[in-house]
Amino acid sequence: MSAELELSFRPDDQLTEVMRLRVQSLQQRGQKRQDGERLLLPNEAVYRLDFSRQSLRFSHWTVRLAQAGRLTVTATSQLWTPDLTNLMTRQLLEPAGVFWRARGDAAVQCYEADAHEFGERIAELAKVRKVMYFLFAFAEGCSPETADCSISFTEDS
C-alpha cells in the first residue's frame, strides 16, 4: 500500500538575504565573483524542501500561477552547504522544472518530460537528504506572491 505525501516548497528568506548580501558586497567593492560562482539574480529566491521521509517515488507536481508568467525551479546538489560555501554553477542540477501560464490560459503548462525527470531526481536525492535547496526564478509577470508550488510522492510502507 502506498501513501501519497505532498511537500510544499517554502521560501528560505534568510538564505536568500545572505545570497543578496554577497552580490551587494561584491558590487560595493568592485570585485568579481569567484570563478564558477553562481550569484543570485534579482528575480530569484531560494526555496527549500524538508523531507520527513526518505523512501519516496515521484508522483506529480502541483504548480499554481495566479496570473500569466513563468516559474523556473532549479535544484542544487547535495554538495552545496549554504552555511559554508558560495553556490557554484556546477552545483545546479539539470533538468530544471519550467512552468508557465500564458495570458488568457487557465492551465499551467510545463515541459512534461523534464518535469518528470526532475521530480524523479528529487526523489532519489531525498534518500540521502533531509533538506534540499532550490532556486526559483520568477519571470514574465510571475512573482513569489502569485506562485505556489508543491511536489507529491508516493511512499512505500
Characterise the protein shown here.
There is one protein chain. The chain is an alpha+beta fold and about 160 residues long. The chain is built from 2 helices and 9 strands, in the order ββαβββββαββ. The protein has helices at about 15-30, 110-125; strands at about 1-10, 10, 45-50, 55-65, 70-75, 95-100, 110, 130-140, 145-155. It has a 6-stranded antiparallel beta sheet with strand order 2-3-8-5-6-7. Strands 1-9-4 form a 3-stranded antiparallel beta sheet, with helices on one face. A hairpin with a 7-residue loop joins β6 (about 95-100) and β7 (about 110). The termini are close together.
Provide a short characterization of the protein structure.
This protein is an alpha+beta fold.
Structural class by helix and strand composition? alpha+beta
Rg over CA atoms: 16 Å
Number of strands: 9
Strand order of the largest sheet: 2-3-8-5-6-7
Helix content: 10-25%
| Overall average residue pLDDT | 93
Taking pLDDT < 50 over at least 5 consecutive residues as the criterion, the unreliable ranges are: none
Number of helices: 2
The global form is globular
> In what range is the share of β-strand residues?
35-45%
Sheet having the most strands:
6 strands, antiparallel
Order of helices and strands: EEHEEEEEHEE
Q: State the end-to-end CA separation.
A: 6 Å
